Amino acid sequence: MENCDSVVLPHNETAVIVDPNDPSHLLAGSNDTQLVSGNARTAMGYYTSFDGGQTWLNGVIAGAGFAQTSDPAVGFDFNGNAFYGMVSFDLGLGGRALGGAIQVAASTDGARTFATPVTVEVSTSDTIEEDKPYLVVDTSSASPFVNSVYVTWTRFAFDSRDNYLESPIFFSASRDGGHTWSAPKEISGRNPALCTFSLTPLPYDGRCREDQFSSPVVAPNGAIFVAFVNDQAVNNGNFRDQYLVVSSSDGGESWTAPVRASDLIHDGVNDYPINVNGRRTLSNSQFRVNSAGNLCVNNNSGELFIVWSDNRHGTAADTNTDVFMVSSPDGANWSAPNAISTAVNDQFYPWCAVAPGGALSVSFMDRSYDPANVKYGITLARRHGGSVHAQRVDTGLSDPNHARWFSSATGGKTTFLGDYTGLAVDGNGVAHPVWTDMRRVVTVRDLSGTTEDIFTVAVP
User: SS3 for 309?
Assistant: First the structure.
């Protein structure tokens, strides 16, 4: 599948889910750039398939009451209803997001159409910025909370001088198909042994409050687990991250203190080169990167997995990022990291899903196919026991250094191709990776370069 709602404008940041009752029924999402009165804005693009990903219908969901939307998150309940989460916001000076809201749109016709998004949380202050929601639906028939919809997100707080203060993870639940939502609550918790310092103007209080990229799943018994990246592991001037996990056994009413799932993630500011916007990037590139992947669960055994990428095998002068995985039987005790990718050059933006038989699948962008470590393809790795089988699933390399979009200050190197990819595995074990592809050249207003399309493929 390639996005077909625009032939020239960029699409990025992908999500995908499979209907738990129908392996041929898929819903994907992406940021969808549009031109309105000559100005660019992003809306939520959705892509629905009823034949296992062979054909797709396209549509757009606009944020209710806001000019922009981004950060798609998708889910199906046990009855075939679909849900689409997003952050909605306006833009201020310099293109900065203003306040905004976490919103969820619901569909009762199998994701053919979506109702107006419902607001889960809205910022009432210029110093609060809602960001990066992700969504999961409880689809376990054994769960006391079946068909509950859960959304997690990051709440960024700044002072009146725009100094960063904190970014804890928040949570809300819906028990009525997304019509109403519980009062948002902070769930990232407190653990002074793990979150050992803070260098913001707020007094240090042991809270794990400098977070991003929350990822929720529901275990077969209805327990909720949320993983997130935290930046308070060690105060050594490099500010490397760690993956933390919290859980709830009562539908989100109460939460455990965070536990550490990863080792120290090698993604500090001294571990990577820095792009023109002051963000971490990769060698020979300008697009921003992060270490985050996601949390996924075996729907039979309840085993949990987290994947991420980091540069422990490379340097800031010569990156060689790889994908790593940890696993847990209970969310409290985690394995040592295992490498999913060991190829040369950079592998990044991983996403995991678990097949019905228990095999872990991980898709990621992969520059091992280009000796120059510039262009990327897509690799799908499947882990059976202790062995990993990786295969290339794209049909053409993507070129981020000859870009039409997000490249005005870099001579054609894009500074943004999305912050993550997506992957779902259906009930027959078929994997559906979805990614931002940059193989196609377009010309707009006499300027040519590669655009950003959404691609997917069904991999038996």
Answer: strand
The CA-based angle 61-364-426, given to 5 degrees, is 65
The token duo for 207 is 């809270």
Please state, in angstroms and rounded to a whole number, the distance separating the CA atoms of residues 362 and 56: 23
Question: What does the pLDDT read at residue 4?
Answer: 53
Structural tokens at position 108: 């009762």
Exposure b/e, 49-68, CB count within 10 A at least 16 = b: bbebbeebebbebbbbebbb
In the block, residue with structure tokens 């965070």 = 258
CA 122 to chain centre: 21
CA distance 260 to 333: 9
Phi, psi values for residue 35, rounded to 5°: -105, 120
* List of residues 6+ apart from 370 with CB closer than 8 A: 345, 376, 377, 397
- Residues 442, 258: Cα–Cα separation, whole Å: 47
Q: Which residues contact 190 (CB under 8 A, 6 or more apart)?
A: 205, 206, 207, 208, 257, 258
Question: Which pLDDT score is estimated for 106?
Answer: 98
Could you tell me if 429 and 443 are in contact, meaning their C-beta atoms sit under 8 angstroms apart? no
pLDDT in tens, 270-324: 999 999 999 999 999 999 999 999 999 999 999 999 999 999 999 999 999 999 9
SS3 of 277, please?
coil
Q: Which domains does the chain have, with CATH numbers?
A: 1-104 (no CATH), 125-260 (2.120.10.10), 264-460 (no CATH)
- Residue 105 C-beta-side C-alpha neighbours within 13 Å: 28
Distance separating alpha carbons of residues 30 and 431, to the nearest angstrom: 18
Which residues touch 66 (CB under 8 Å, ≥6 apart)?
Answer: 88, 89, 90, 100, 101
Are the C-beta atoms of residues 9 and 34 closer than 8 Å to each other? yes
What is the structure's pLDDT at 1? 59
Q: Which two tokens stand for residue 131?
A: 């960001």
What DSSP line would sit under 323-384, residue for residue?
A: EEEEEESSSSS-PPPEES---SS-EEEEEEEE-TTS-EEEEEEE-TTSTTS-SBEEEEEEEE
- The pLDDT value recorded for residue 98 is 66
Ranges of the chain with pLDDT below 50: none
Distance (Å, whole) CA 172 – CA 103:
11
What is residue 209's predicted lDDT score, i.e. its pLDDT? 98
